[in-house]
Amino acid sequence: MPLPFPQWVSAFKRVDKDPARVKTGLVNTSYHFPEPALIIAPVLPERRKLYCANWLTARPLWISRIDHHPPSLLPIPQTWRDFLNTIPSALLADNATTKSAQEKLAVKTLFGQALVYLQGNTWATQGDVSWRNHHIAITTLEDPPAHLMCCILWEIYELGFRYELLDLDCAMVPGLWTEAPTERTEFLYSIFPGESGLVMWQEDMN
After folding, report:
1. Helices (H), ranges, the chain
2. Number of domains into which the chain is organized
3. Position 6 in a domain
4. Block means of pLDDT (10 residues each) for the chain, length 206 residues?
5. Quick one: pLDDT at residue 124?
6. What pLDDT, on the 0 to 100 scale, is given for residue 67?
């Protein structure tokens, strides 16, 4: 895992933790993106391949949805775990009589039918996934190259940070987002390099 930024560590040490100052409900506590640790947590190679393949397959469509038409309720950590830990054909089933099936139905509802079918089709026919202009054979994800995993994890961390910053800014200065949302969005985008806003679409990873 990457080391924490010294500036963040120093800032958090100076935070006033008086419970009277805590306000709940200002920021959505769900996750725009999965916790990076989820991707590398599985010990079994087959399960590791499943988690990685599910994320890499879902990644382009999910990023597009988050950027243009975000769901009203974002996934909680357990929902991300259910999604990454599910064989695509199970998500396509309509049976929702068991608790597990009901959880899968909730995942399908949240992530969208198109994304679920994309995930299933990729596993069923293509046998590989595309990530930042690289084609990766799904079979190699049981023991993926260390550099590849570092890049994938870094991207998830960076995406999560950018959207958390967006949520924080909306909570801290809601008036500016109401009065001039376009200008505020452009200001937020200007913080990051490139012209892709928050999503870092197809920048190469070297």
Report:
1. 6-13, 36-40, 45-68, 77-84, 88-92, 99-111, 113-121, 146-172, 174-179, 181-189
2. 1
3. no
4. 78 85 74 90 87 86 82 84 73 54 63 57 60 85 89 91 89 93 89 69 51
5. 43
6. 81
Of 16, 27, 15, 20, the residue nearest 171 (C-alpha): 27
Residue 119 structural domain: 30-191
pTM: 0.75
> Which amino acid is present at 16?
D
Nearest to 74 by CA among 110, 102, 104: 110
The count of C-alpha atoms lying within 13 angstroms of the C-alpha of 14, restricted to the half-sphere facing its C-beta, is 5
Residue 96 lies inside a defined structural domain of this protein: yes
Note whether residue 169 is domain-resident.
Answer: yes
Strand partners, 129: 136
Q: So what's the pLDDT on residue 126?
A: 52
DSSP per residue, 173-185:
-HHHHHH-HHHHH
Q: From the CB of residue 164, how many other CB atoms can be counted at a distance below 10 Å? A: 15
Q: What's the rounded Cα separation, in Å, for the pair 123 and 144?
A: 17
Separation of alpha carbons 30 and 181, rounded Å: 23
